[in-house]
Amino acid sequence: MLSMALLLSVGTVMGQVDKAALKAAQKEAKAQMAEAVKMDQALVAKINEKAASVEEILSECKKGQALVRKAIKSGGVAENKLGEAYKTLADFAQFPNNVMLNLSQNNQPFDTTFFYSNLKTLTSALQGEIQNTKVTKGETGNENYIKGKKAALAKSADFFLYAAQLFSNGEHHDKALDAFETAMNYKKLYPEVAEQVEFQIPAEQISFYAFHTAHQGKMYDKMDALYDDAVKFAESADVTKQVMIESYRERGDTATWANKLRELTVENPANNDTYIQMLIAYYLKKDKEAGPESNLMMPYVDEVLAKDPNVLIAQYGKAFKLFESEKYDEALESYKKCTEIKPDYYDAWYQCGLCKYKQALALNSKVSTIKNQVEAKKALEKTKSLFGEAIPFFEKARECAPDEPMKWAFELRQCYSVTGQAAKAAEMDKLL
């Protein structure tokens, strides 16, 4: 019973303290709001008379915002007075917003960070006023006034895009992304005006800008979250895909980079020569590191060529791998396909000749080891024949690079010499 009495006593005291604290808070909030309203009215009068400087407007509005925010945060503003409090706060945010936009139009400097924080104050204040003001109709009603407030809140959506642009220009990527995300989520944040919000650019373009801002700021988690919407911006979808893929290499995840790049290039090989070349080089390096049993590159180029057999770099990559594996007949066919795609392709013509030339050299090295004279003679004739078959290809290479004899004259001299064409061999000697 004694414990119960003590609890009741403490409860009574606490109740009295709470009431006293609330009364004090209400009194302080009332005084703060009275001061803020007085400041607001005085500033409006000076602005209307064009007697307020830019510095004075910004300074007074910062003070006014602090007063109103403190009053609202204290909980001391009566519920039926919240609409008025938010109206005053909106005034203190609207004036600086107008001033800084005007400075921008005249190419004059202003505080971008304050512009953004003030913009957030403005939109939250307009929303607070709309939510806490009862709409009344008729001649003396406020219906049209609230419509105007809603229009102002809807219009402010574009200002977040402008703030994002300002931050991007200043390379403040985190702030720029925050502004972009606010714009993208504006209808959810401010459902009161969801049907009135209309951006000057489509939603997917905003996502595109946000995605690339996240990339510039190396905010890879944000990039991942924004990608699906950003890639819907069809005009730059290929760029977005490429940036996304490259980001994996930036993160040090080359395996995912290669897999994503493979998907992209196989899906659309015709427009991705550079990336196909990069991936061929990557697979060749991996094959070399893993040893002769590794074969990552060939299945990839076969996938590309199955989709589009006229991708030159893929045909050349396949030919190169076959040549490297000393599969000269197969390599020759792939190099010949390269010349069909690009008739003036020096490298492909030269490599065609080299396929025959290498076969000739390999066979020639064995002639002396053949004991049967008949077979040895056949091998020698075959060797000469292979050197002769190489000549037309080397001559085509010569046509592609006539002023660069160091690229083809040595092999042609050898071929002409072996096939008994001494005059032409001498001509090559002179060029060398």
Describe the structure.
With 432 residues, the chain is mostly helical. Among the domains are: 253-325, no CATH class; 343-432, Alpha Horseshoe (Serine Threonine Protein Phosphatase 5, Tetratricopeptide repeat). The chain has helices at residues 2-48, 54-74, 82-105, 112-131, 143-169, 173-184, 186-189, 203-216, 220-230, 237-250, 254-267, 273-290, 297-307, 312-324, 328-341, 346-367, 373-400, 409-418, 422-431. Helix 5 packs antiparallel against helix 6 and helix 17 runs antiparallel to helix 18 (409-418). It is elongated and about 125 Å long. The N and C termini lie far apart (118 Å). The model has no long low-confidence stretch (mean pLDDT 93).
List keywords for this structure.
432 residues, mainly alpha, Serine Threonine Protein Phosphatase 5, Tetratricopeptide repeat, 19 helices, 0% strand, elongated
Topology, element by element:
Elements: H1 2-48, H2 54-74, H3 82-105, H4 112-131, H5 143-169, H6 173-184, H7 186-189, H8 203-216, H9 220-230, H10 237-250, H11 254-267, H12 273-290, H13 297-307, H14 312-324, H15 328-341, H16 346-367, H17 373-400, H18 409-418, H19 422-431
Helix pairs in contact: 1-2, 1-3, 2-3, 3-4, 4-5, 5-6, 6-8, 8-9, 8-10, 9-10, 10-11, 11-12, 11-13, 12-14, 13-14, 14-15, 15-16, 16-17, 17-18, 18-19
The radius of gyration is 39 Å
What does the average pLDDT come to?
Answer: 93
CATH topology of the domain at 343-432: Serine Threonine Protein Phosphatase 5, Tetratricopeptide repeat
User: Per the principal axes of the C-alpha atoms, what is the gross shape?
Assistant: elongated
The number of helical segments is: 19
- Give the SSE order as H and E letters: HHHHHHHHHHHHHHHHHHH
Give the oligomeric state.
single chain
**Strand element count:** 0
